[in-house]
Amino acid sequence: MGHQSAFHAPHGGADFLAMRKNRLGATEIVYDDGVSRRIVWRVEAPAANEDRISDALRVAVGALRVVPALYNELKKRAIAIERVAG
Question: For the chain, which residues make up each domain, given as ranges?
Answer without folding.
Answer: 6-85
